[in-house]
Write a structure and sequence with these properties.
The protein is α+β, with helices and mostly antiparallel strands. It has nine helices and 15 strands.
Amino acid sequence: MHNFTRKSSTFVQILWPKNMKSRLFTAIFVLVLAYGCSRGYESVGGYAQGGTYSVKYNAAGVQPGREEIAAAIDAILDSIDVTFSGYNKKSILSRRNAGEDVPRNAMFIELEQISEEYRILSGGAFDIAAAPLFDVWGFGFKSGEMPSDEEVAAAMERCKAREVLNFNAIAQGYTCDKVAAYLHSIGVHDMLVDIGEIYLEGLNPGGKPWTIGIDTPSDDNVTPGSSLSGTWVSDGGAHGVVTSGNYRKFYIRDGHKYAHTIDPRTGCPVEHNLLSATVIAPTATEADALATFFMVIGFEQARSWVEAHPGIEACLITSDDIWRSEGF
């Protein structure tokens, strides 16, 4: 099993034919998959990064068989684990965070560079060195009490020193892109890669564009897929789809709700009404980073950012309303 901490996010559901009754969903889902397989579609899956993963692809004209492809995907996931996992004590990340002078492999260097680009782009709102803040507020690998101002200040100094890195805010999207790159290399054009975050391209087994559902971000919605706030239908192009949200991971102390999203610029949990941000971007890596960024800066700034950047679409759900960009 590949053990990342799964970043808190709203559920992204693969939707098949509409208007099906819930009690019939499983049967129809199986029939669609069977039909898809007859058209050349295959599906592989398993455990990865603290949860499960699923890869669906059109195998028509693809030379490697299903078992070979499944093994190759598992090898990619293993490589990600030994590079970025905070739970694997032998990973490059764990050894680096423990103070060991460990050589970084190509993936580590690449994702560290990408993360730095987003740190600069976001003005520090996205920062993989913010792990000490998550620890001190009780959302990281430790569960602590309410931190004092001095403890928060000390954690921010550790962040500035880049003492501890944590790639959870971007690693799942990056993993999706790595799997997609492998599938591209063997000639796959229609695919859906779901590893907590999503990369999709082409058509689904029914010959239609992929359709994604967005979970309703409410504190009592604890069953993924039980309540949706809307859907997004792809155009057949290549897209990363990522949703980040606050509503399933928080704690309440002295009557105050503290969300799991920490603003690295202030050292404190964010306090705004943005409940979830679903981002559509050319890659899952970009969508993952931007979804985290938006949850830090809040609704108004996130909306302005999306409107100023063609090629990025978003659905922003607040406690009061739902906003969708023009192309969403």
